[in-house]
Amino acid sequence: MTARTLRIAMNGVTGRMGYRQHLVRSILPIREQGGVELPDGTRVQVEPVLVGRNEDKIRELAKKHDVEHWTTDLDAAIADDSVDVVFDASMTSLRAETLTKAMRAGKHIYTEKPTAETLQEAIDLARLREETGVTAGVVHDKLYLPGLVKLRRLVDEGFFGRILSLRGEFGYWVFEGDTQAAQRPSWNYRKEDGGGMTTDMFCHWNYVLEGILGQVRTVTATTVTHIPTRWDEAGKQYEATADDAAYGIFDITTPGGDPVVAQINSSWAVRVYRDELVEFQVDGTHGSAVAGLRKCVAQQRAHTPKPVWNPDLPVTEPFREQWLEVPANADLDNGFKLQWEEFLRDVVAGRPHRFDLLSAARGVQLAELGLQSSAEGRRLAVPEITL
Ligand SMILES: NC(=O)c1ccc[n+]([C@@H]2O[C@H](COP(=O)([O-])OP(=O)(O)OC[C@H]3O[C@@H](n4cnc5c(N)ncnc54)[C@H](O)[C@@H]3O)[C@@H](O)[C@H]2O)c1
């Protein structure tokens, strides 16, 4: 039985994230399965309204996916009384304005990260949410990945003993666009258009570190533009003004008060010699684990080999074979869809979503401080944000 239907104005659905992860992998499958089940056994159905600048594209998209409603007028969609939720996956630089208008119109909002280009804007958004009382959700997709779900479970079970450190390796080679087309949009490499590795990824790393380990207290970063010239979607050469790699070190405090050192390399100018496009290794006194997007392997203290450094001999241990795979023990659906479902339940219940605009503001803060740390060549404290 369907209790009610939520109308969701989806802005930016012609883009990579908006189309693939949010429309095709989340909202359409939720519609297809008859909505989201609520705790009382009833269901809430979703009805997307596609919003985009290009009429031909958006009409075509609506037709292709059997979506009845679409518009090129974002303001009208926001003002539409029948719309319950405004979703934004448009380019970052346009986001704060859209979210502000939507919350002022009394809409619940769900949005891609980062929520804003500056910390002040991100805090203003979080304050506006408090004032308006709407439910706001910000994509924290990495925490819903099977690999990280397993890693978090190991933390909860006390597998690691005292956690000492985390090392993350993220990235792959993004083609310059001259001989082979780039696999990411060109605005990502222009600072003036809201691009940049630090802005893009430190907001993810903040919630990953918070979600797995604890609060981030300091940041030390070196951000670089390794590839200064790229070619855009039209094959036109442009200057890559944004950083395409960020090397960060973060001091963390766990909820129990223990210090943990995390370091994460993020780069669009690295060739992958890993099992997955992102990997995190956590080392603790009683065990270690390495988690990727999907897989997670672990090694206990009792199973830890005892290598001895001897450069004169070939390696004697099959190190990679000495780890045991951590099972999922459950069917883990697409992470974007799982978070959408959780958010929609929160909307119906009229309660805040756990990954909200304040958490997102901390992500924007970490990116801003990361860039500042690099520019000034020093370690910076991460002050607590209060609304
Ligand atoms: N959660 C994640 O893992 C993740 C990954 C990548 C990107 N993102 C975020 O998603 C958002 C969209 O990124 P994307 O990679 O899908 O980008 P994209 O360039 O593929 O899509 C951008 C969308 O914005 C629209 N748009 C509106 N006005 C525009 C303008 N003036 N210029 C260009 N595009 C305009 C485009 O039509 C398109 O629908 C960004 O904020 C980005 O930070 C999140």
Structure description:
The protein is α/β, with parallel strands linked by helices and 387 residues long. Helix content is 31%, strand content 26%. It has nine helices and 18 strands. The protein has helices at 16-32, 55-64, 74-79, 95-104, 119-132, 146-156, 197-212, 335-349, 357-376; strands spanning 2-11, 36-37, 43-51, 69-71, 85-88, 108-111, 136-138, 163-171, 215-224, 229-231, 237-239, 245-253, 259-267, 278-284, 287-291, 296-300, 324-325, 380-381. The strands form three sheets. It has a nine-stranded mixed sheet with strand order 17-16-15-14-8-13-12-9-18. Strands 1, 2, 3, 4, 5, 6 and 7 form a seven-stranded mixed sheet that branches. Helix 2 links the parallel strand 3 and strand 4 (69-71). The longest helix is centred in the C-terminal third of the chain and has 20 residues, at 357-376. The mean pLDDT is 96. Bound molecules: nicotinamide-adenine-dinucleotide.
Task: Summarize this entry quickly.
The chain has about 375 residues and is of the alpha/beta class. The chain has helices at about 15-30, 55-65, 75-80, 95-105, 120-130, 145-155, 195-210, 335-350, 355-375, and strands at about 1-10, 35, 45-50, 70, 85-90, 110, 135-140, 165-170, 215-225, 230, 235-240, 245-255, 260-265, 280-285, 285-290, 295-300, 325, 380.
